[in-house]
């Protein structure tokens, strides 16, 4: 049985209430941090743990905290990014609704470490019931003296505010989230300045994912070194994976980073293998925005090594033969899934969610969607494939925020690995545009 | 006491060294090079959304992306992505590649393509034609063909106030007018609604803009999305003659450009600098209500760039001299014409004759067909 850090107590009945959570050793980390440690020591533990941002980019959290500017007389803010909207990712939702106090405990410790007296949890608007759960949990914590003025008699004040978002994917981008939190239109900002220097209300701000922050109680209780001992290489600790698609047991699983993809996909403890009578066709390993992988590159890398669930192993081979761990949205496709239709579907999502601020993304996402729609519905031509590759190249890296990249990668990778399927759609328009029609030819090899 | 000057920063832009003050952007440094030597003006990155008089504008259109080959003298690593030159500040020892880098030029070409895929090609009936930044940008950096086969987005025209018409179909969402409405007018009445390629500039539910400086959104618009209703379809810009003029205005600086067609003032705009930017915004009274020469003190013709189509229309006849040899040739040939037909001068008679000729021709063709 693998070690669990976040979901250890998740199945205990009543864990969403303060009392049950406290009985399971909850809030001891807050007591330890506030009573016995200085903020610098907490930051040091986070750095030692090597925990990487779980929102998708994988940037070390301790390092991010270290960048926070600390000018005198200006407030600092911690914002928790709970605007989880990546297609295929639903881990934060699961964590917040099941064990809300874990996030709140993490928020108290992290705010203490950063010297923030006002912290925000920005939850996507669709999760109204989760917002109510969090607000109830905050009330409970406040009543027990873990939040509010003079926490545990230490003189440290913290106010925790839950803010519902408007339901836009783009508000999961940290600067767009800050704009939205300020009450403006959720347009990403140009960087620099980074939020660590000028974030919320032009003050230094740290934005962290729910899962990253939820790791803090364990790190404080057991030490950063103990956390760093779990996992493999620079991918330390555990990760929640949202498994979905054509598998036996979809759901949220906590894995130790470094588990092999093969084991995660096929063992009964996790996904339980591809659904019966079907075989694996493709995999999106980290949410819709990461490159898709064909069957032959999923369990082995291009060099023939075992592919592991870690930041490094999944991105082995770059974008030519690799992908990214991203936010951990593990979407499995069997041979009944049409890659063209799926790519069109992803592309439609990014077209719909582009904020419309910078031209490559605003115009390019719509263009790609229209071309893919045409191919899927049997009106494509051969030069459309190269056109798509060219558009995706022109969007990638030229936009204000990573949404442009996120829109370009799935399209580029689908064509890279499944070009023959696109060609089949174009050469057999009548057959391909039938509902449920799927290319049954040989799977492309790289 | 000696004035303390900030230490200048030296950067290299396309192989040209320039010294600028700290806090300058790459774009401003490039403009400084061009202002010192007009021959280098092709080096300046194009700006579709950046507008110097409007702080915080820029960074959206991505037309000015450049490559930073060396971040600074301290940290000589190149920047991983192309950076928007309009908002990226210079560092000591920075090396910037603009026209010397093929990747930058390719990207710029694709930005033109992106901006044009939803832009109607209605330049022949657009009032902005001739002074349109997108036209210039596309002409200089774009390709002649489009690869876009899909339907373009379209919107209905909206009248925002008595003076301004909004035609969103042409808009490239540069946000300049939003910043103008935000920064120089009292109330924020004007913004962006919806998102992605469906986003539109609008006043909230097509409400009229009612303030004294609303006309400035017309000047800042790089395309023909916001047009002057008192000038719409009156004339082509290259048939008009710009003159600088001023008047005492209690609301604004009163410094404007009058656009003449013959003796008639058909349009008034704020004065624009070399980069197409308005430095002194003007009020609606000056812009829309003082359309008589007697209201103004004239200062002389506005300087227009030679490359501009506006200067193609020579204002004064003296500038255009017909070559002598053509006149002489015409003169010598004129005498040799020996036409025995009746010499007709009356217009009515000419028209009659042509109608008759037409009838004859029609009759002939009918006969042939039958």
UniProtKB/TrEMBL annotation, chain A:
<dbReference type="InterPro" id="IPR037207">
    <property type="entry name" value="Nuop51_4Fe4S-bd_sf"/>
</dbReference>
<keyword id="KW-0004">4Fe-4S</keyword>
<keyword id="KW-0479">Metal-binding</keyword>
<keyword id="KW-0874">Quinone</keyword>
<dbReference type="InterPro" id="IPR037225">
    <property type="entry name" value="Nuo51_FMN-bd_sf"/>
</dbReference>
<dbReference type="GO" id="GO:0046872">
    <property type="term" value="F:metal ion binding"/>
</dbReference>
<keyword id="KW-0288">FMN</keyword>
<dbReference type="Pfam" id="PF01512">
    <property type="entry name" value="Complex1_51K"/>
</dbReference>
<keyword id="KW-0411">Iron-sulfur</keyword>
<dbReference type="GO" id="GO:0016491">
    <property type="term" value="F:oxidoreductase activity"/>
</dbReference>
<keyword id="KW-0520">NAD</keyword>
<dbReference type="InterPro" id="IPR019575">
    <property type="entry name" value="Nuop51_4Fe4S-bd"/>
</dbReference>
<dbReference type="InterPro" id="IPR054765">
    <property type="entry name" value="SLBB_dom"/>
</dbReference>
<dbReference type="GO" id="GO:0010181">
    <property type="term" value="F:FMN binding"/>
</dbReference>
<keyword id="KW-1278">Translocase</keyword>
<dbReference type="GO" id="GO:0051287">
    <property type="term" value="F:NAD binding"/>
</dbReference>
<dbReference type="InterPro" id="IPR001949">
    <property type="entry name" value="NADH-UbQ_OxRdtase_51kDa_CS"/>
</dbReference>
<dbReference type="Pfam" id="PF10589">
    <property type="entry name" value="NADH_4Fe-4S"/>
</dbReference>
<dbReference type="GO" id="GO:0008137">
    <property type="term" value="F:NADH dehydrogenase (ubiquinone) activity"/>
</dbReference>
<keyword id="KW-0408">Iron</keyword>
<keyword id="KW-0285">Flavoprotein</keyword>
<keyword id="KW-0560">Oxidoreductase</keyword>
UniProtKB/TrEMBL annotation, chain B:
<keyword id="KW-0411">Iron-sulfur</keyword>
<dbReference type="InterPro" id="IPR054351">
    <property type="entry name" value="NADH_UbQ_OxRdtase_ferredoxin"/>
</dbReference>
<dbReference type="Pfam" id="PF13510">
    <property type="entry name" value="Fer2_4"/>
</dbReference>
<dbReference type="GO" id="GO:0046872">
    <property type="term" value="F:metal ion binding"/>
</dbReference>
<dbReference type="InterPro" id="IPR050123">
    <property type="entry name" value="Prok_molybdopt-oxidoreductase"/>
</dbReference>
<dbReference type="InterPro" id="IPR001041">
    <property type="entry name" value="2Fe-2S_ferredoxin-type"/>
</dbReference>
<dbReference type="Pfam" id="PF10588">
    <property type="entry name" value="NADH-G_4Fe-4S_3"/>
</dbReference>
<dbReference type="InterPro" id="IPR036010">
    <property type="entry name" value="2Fe-2S_ferredoxin-like_sf"/>
</dbReference>
<keyword id="KW-0408">Iron</keyword>
<dbReference type="GO" id="GO:0051539">
    <property type="term" value="F:4 iron, 4 sulfur cluster binding"/>
</dbReference>
<dbReference type="GO" id="GO:0016020">
    <property type="term" value="C:membrane"/>
</dbReference>
<keyword id="KW-1278">Translocase</keyword>
<keyword id="KW-0520">NAD</keyword>
<comment type="similarity">
    <text>Belongs to the complex I 75 kDa subunit family.</text>
</comment>
<keyword id="KW-0004">4Fe-4S</keyword>
<protein>
    <submittedName>
        <fullName>2Fe-2S iron-sulfur cluster binding domain-containing protein</fullName>
    </submittedName>
</protein>
<dbReference type="Pfam" id="PF22117">
    <property type="entry name" value="Fer4_Nqo3"/>
</dbReference>
<keyword id="KW-0479">Metal-binding</keyword>
<feature type="domain" description="2Fe-2S ferredoxin-type">
    <location>
        <begin position="7"/>
        <end position="102"/>
    </location>
</feature>
<feature type="domain" description="4Fe-4S His(Cys)3-ligated-type">
    <location>
        <begin position="103"/>
        <end position="142"/>
    </location>
</feature>
<dbReference type="InterPro" id="IPR019574">
    <property type="entry name" value="NADH_UbQ_OxRdtase_Gsu_4Fe4S-bd"/>
</dbReference>
<dbReference type="GO" id="GO:0016491">
    <property type="term" value="F:oxidoreductase activity"/>
</dbReference>
């Amino acid at each position: 049985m693998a070690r669990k850090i976040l979901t250890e107590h998740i199945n205990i009945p009543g864990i969403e209430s303060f009392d049950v959570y406290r009985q399971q050793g909850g809030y001891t980390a807050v007591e330890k941090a506030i009573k016995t440690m200085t903020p610098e020591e907490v930051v040091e533990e986070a750095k030692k743990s090597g925990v990487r941002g779980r929102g998708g980019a994988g940037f070390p959290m301790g390092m991010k905290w270290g960048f926070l500017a600390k000018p005198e007389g200006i407030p600092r803010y911690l914002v928790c990014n709970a605007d989880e909207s990546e297609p295929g990712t639903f881990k934060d939702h699961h964590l917040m609704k099941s064990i809300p106090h874990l996030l709140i405990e993490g928020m108290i410790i992290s705010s203490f470490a950063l010297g923030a007296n006002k912290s925000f949890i920005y939850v996507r608007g669709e999760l109204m019931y989760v917002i109510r759960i969090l607000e109830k949990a905050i009330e409970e914590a406040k009543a027990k003296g873990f939040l509010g003025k003079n926490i545990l008699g230490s003189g440290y004040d913290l106010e925790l505010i839950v803010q519902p978002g408007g339901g836009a994917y783009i508000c999961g981008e940290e600067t767009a989230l800050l704009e939205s939190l300020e009450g403006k239109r959720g347009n990403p900002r140009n960087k620099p300045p980074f939020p660590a220097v000028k974030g919320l209300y032009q003050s230094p701000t740290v934005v962290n994912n729910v899962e990253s922050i939820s790791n803090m109680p364990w790190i404080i209780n057991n030490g950063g070194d103990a956390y760093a001992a779990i996992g493999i290489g620079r991918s330390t600790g555990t990760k929640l994976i949202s498994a979905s698609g054509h598998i036996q047991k979809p759901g949220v699983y906590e894995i130790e980073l470094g588990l092999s993809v093969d084991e995660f996909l096929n063992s009964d403890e996790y996904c339980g293998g591809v659904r019966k009578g079907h075989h694996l066709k493709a995999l999106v390993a980290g949410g819709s925005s990461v490159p898709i992988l064909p069957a032959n590159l999923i369990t082995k890398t291009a060099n023939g090594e075992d592919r592991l669930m870690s930041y490094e192993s999944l991105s082995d081979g770059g974008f030519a033969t690799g992908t990214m761990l991203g936010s951990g949205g593990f979407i499995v496709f069997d041979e009944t899934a049409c890659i063209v239709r799926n790519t069109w579907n992803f592309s439609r999502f990014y077209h719909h969610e582009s904020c419309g601020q910078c031209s490559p993304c605003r115009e390019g996402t719509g263009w790609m969607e229209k071309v893919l729609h045409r191919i899927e519905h049997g009106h494509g031509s051969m030069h459309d494939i190269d056109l798509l590759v060219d558009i995706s190249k022109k969007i990638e890296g030229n936009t204000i925020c990573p949404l442009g990249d996120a829109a370009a990668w799935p399209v580029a990778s689908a064509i890279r690995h499944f070009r023959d399927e696109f060609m089949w759609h174009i050469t057999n328009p009548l057959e391909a545009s039938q509902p449920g029609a799927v290319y049954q030819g040989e799977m492309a090899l790289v | 006491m000696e004035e303390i000057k900030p230490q200048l920063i030296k950067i290299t832009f396309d192989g040209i060294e320039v010294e600028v003050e700290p806090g300058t952007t790459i774009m401003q440094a490039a403009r400084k090079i061009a202002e010192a030597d007009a021959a280098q003006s092709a080096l300046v990155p194009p700006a579709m959304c950046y507008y110097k008089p409007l702080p915080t504008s820029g960074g959206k259109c991505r037309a000015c992306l450049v490559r930073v080959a060396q971040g600074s003298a301290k940290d000589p690593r190149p920047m991983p992505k192309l950076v928007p030159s309009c908002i990226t500040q210079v560092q000591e020892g920075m090396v910037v590649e603009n026209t010397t880098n093929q990747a930058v030029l390719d990207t710029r070409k694709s930005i033109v393509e992106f901006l044009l895929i939803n832009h109607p090609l209605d330049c022949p009936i657009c009032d902005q034609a001739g002074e349109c930044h997108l036209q210039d940008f596309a002409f200089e950096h774009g390709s002649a063909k489009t690869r876009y086969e899909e339907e373009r987005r379209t919107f209905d025209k909206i009248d925002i106030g008595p003076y301004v018409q909004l035609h969103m179909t042409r808009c490239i969402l540069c946000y300049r007018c939003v910043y103008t409405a935000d920064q120089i007018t009292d109330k924020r009445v004007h913004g962006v609604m919806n998102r992605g390629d469906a986003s539109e500039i609008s006043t909230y539910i097509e409400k009229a803009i009612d303030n004294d400086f609303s006309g400035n959104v017309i000047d800042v618009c790089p395309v023909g999305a916001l047009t002057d209703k008192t000038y719409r379809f009156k004339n082509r810009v290259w048939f008009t003659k710009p003159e600088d003029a001023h008047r005492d205005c209690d609301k604004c600086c009163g410094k404007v450009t009058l656009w003449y067609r013959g003796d008639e003032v058909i349009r008034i705009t704020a004065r624009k600098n070399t980069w197409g930017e308005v430095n002194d915004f003007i009020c609606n009274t000056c812009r829309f209500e003082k359309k008589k020469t007697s209201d103004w003190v004239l200062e002389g013709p506005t300087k227009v760039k030679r490359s501009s189509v506006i200067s193609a229309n020579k204002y004064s006849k003296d500038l255009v001299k017909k070559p002598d040899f053509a006149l002489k040739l015409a003169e010598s040939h004129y005498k040799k014409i020996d036409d025995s037909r009746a010499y007709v001068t009356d217009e009515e008679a000419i028209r009659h004759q042509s109608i008759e000729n037409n009838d004859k021709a029609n009759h002939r063709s009918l006969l042939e067909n039958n």
